[in-house]
Amino acid sequence: MTNIKLNPKLKIPNQNKKKYDLKDRIFKFVIDVLDYLDKLPRTPVNRVIIGQCARSSTSIGANYEEADSGHTKKDFSYKMEIMRKEAKETRYWLKVSLVKNPKTNPDKCESLRDECLQLIRIFSTIINKSK
User: Fold this and answer.
1) How do residues 81-95 score in pLDDT, each as one tens digit?
2) Which structural domains are found in the chain, ordered by start?
3) How many Cα atoms occupy the beta-carbon half-sphere of 34 within 13 Å?
4) 98: closest CA among 82, 85, 114, 84?
5) pTM
């Protein structure tokens, strides 16, 4: 392997800035939600919460993939609206999980709810700009 040394005076634009990628952010959120749900006790009530939350959270990512390849502006906007609805539902189920399991990692749940709210706001901004 060759050692390549860059001139220290050479400035590469945006070298230290990470590109913001919504697709990656959504994917990480979905995986984090699934990891959180996987750690909840398997009671009859939790099975409902886990199933509903898993479906709504994974739907966010699946709809993003569809929105990203939308054929029309209207199609894109519609998929984004579905994503926002699914994110709101996910936030609701996370809240229910916290109420029913207050000792099962409440900080993680609140962190997920906060990220979900941020995603909802991002989706709302995108929807408003696409109209």
Assistant:
1) 999 999 999 999 999
2) 22-130 (1.20.1440.60)
3) 14
4) 114
5) 0.83
